[in-house]
Amino acid sequence: MPRILDNNQRIVEEHTFRFGLTDVMFIRALAAVPGVPVKTRDLVKVDHFVYAQYIQREALMQYEFLPEPSKALGLLVLVAALLLPAPAHAADAGFTQFIASLWPEAKAAGVSRATFDTETRGLEPDYKLPDLILPGRPATGAPSQAEFVQVPADYVKEASIIRLAAEGQKLMQKHRAALSAIEARFGVPATIMLAIWGRETDYGRYTLPDDTLRVVATQAYVGRRKDQYRTEFILALKILGEGAVARKDMRSSWAGATGLTQFLPSEYYKHGVDFDGDGRVDIWNSVPDALASAAQQLVNKGWQPGLRWAYEVRAPANVDCTTGVPEVTKPIGEWLRAGFVPVRGQKLSATEQAQPASLLQPEGIYGPAFLTTKNYFVIKEYNFSDLYVRHAASPHAHRSLYRQTGRQGGDEDARGTRGVSEIGRPKGRLLAERSGAAFDRSRALKIT
């Protein structure tokens, strides 16, 4: 059998490298060139799906830049690359085997064989998700959530707060009975629950993009937190097996958080509440269940009824910014004696002054300052972001909600603070929106 010339083989090698082919793909590329002997056993080696995706995305573009006279052989390599069998099928064999290996754990958790087989049949990984560890792909962490990368003025837009508050007013009226009952039982203000719901899924109007089971399965297989998601996968199967939600309705974020208030499957079992009394915990369709479950999660993480999340204060001119960290905690009275003044000059009771608090200056010395209590950090466990907490405790939204409920808002309310202070705000400095004081999703909880 004739063999390809050495020089031509070198050209094929160069273009194989240019197209990002693995060694195995190089063998397949040579096999596509007439007259090149290739051993059959080399053709069945598994090449990673990442390279195939790269080829199909880049090869055509790269071909345009090939120099002459190598373009003819380059075309052969290009065709070979584009016609390669989708290697994801080979990679998926490992995924299928991994999923099958989880049956004993699923069985021990109470998942039936019928549920396991039905829900995993045809299940494929989603390698486009972030936070995966994949050979040939740069390490990725969680995507940049708005609450972690945006400045407060962008994250807390007044227009967004007004829109959410307006919708919240309607929902406060619609679900008044349930919200009052939830607040009475758990001690979490209705406005906090509505704010979380609004930020997590825009009051249920945002359609979560992913299949929860596929997400947690992929994360368990090649994610950075495999052990955690192994458990999430098993519990997701259990949820489906119990009939709490249909698979088509169990949509989630990229991290597997699902439902109106964005719970991971494990959080569903830790904090889920059947508040409407229909015999099942439905955080996907039942507003009472979803909001009561969110309140239960806060309580389970240490929420103290009747305790404000923060007091907005005016910091002294000589404030030491290094004290504005969670580790520095003092009784509020001690902060006041150090020169911090409540923005409206209100007098705090002895009980309030005895409460431990940390200083938060999210925008530095020129922005607002807050003395944050334990409840602040409880909300932060729901989503680890200062901006998220300020959104969930947004006084602007609270005041709008209270207008229609006849309840007192602003600083006089033990639940929130007034809008961001205008004091000490130099012109031209990018600070929080004029009337805003804070919040956002995620989209993930995790929050995830």
What does this structure look like?
The chain has about 450 residues and is mostly helical. It has a domain at about 5-85. The protein has 22 helices and seven strands. The protein has helices at about 5-20, 25-30, 40-45, 50-65, 70-80, 90-100, 105-110, 115-120, 145-150, 150-155, 160-175, 175-185, 190-200, 210-220, 225-240, 265-270, 285-300, 330-335, 350-355, 375-380, 385-390, 395-405; strands at about 210, 250, 310-315, 330, 340, 355-360, 370. The strands form two sheets. Strands 4-6-7-3-5 form a five-stranded antiparallel sheet. Strand 6 and strand 7 (about 370) form a beta hairpin. Helix 1 (about 5-20) packs across helix 2 and helix 4 runs antiparallel to helix 5. The model is unreliable at about 1-5, about 15-60, about 85-90, about 145-155, about 385-390 and about 395-448 (pLDDT under 50).
Task: Provide a short characterization of the protein structure.
With 448 residues, the chain is mainly alpha-helical.
**DSSP helix fraction:** 40-55%
Total beta strand runs: 7
Report the β-strand fraction as a percent range. Answer: 5-15%
Run of helices and strands: HHHHHHHHHHHHHEHHEHHEEHEHEEHHH
Largest sheet features:
5 strands, antiparallel
* CA-CA gap between termini: 58 Å
**Rg computed from alpha carbons, rounded to a whole number of angstroms:** 28 Å
What characteristic shape results from the CA principal axes?
globular
What spatial order of strands do you see in the largest sheet? 4-6-7-3-5
Could you say which structural class the secondary elements and strand pairing correspond to? mainly alpha
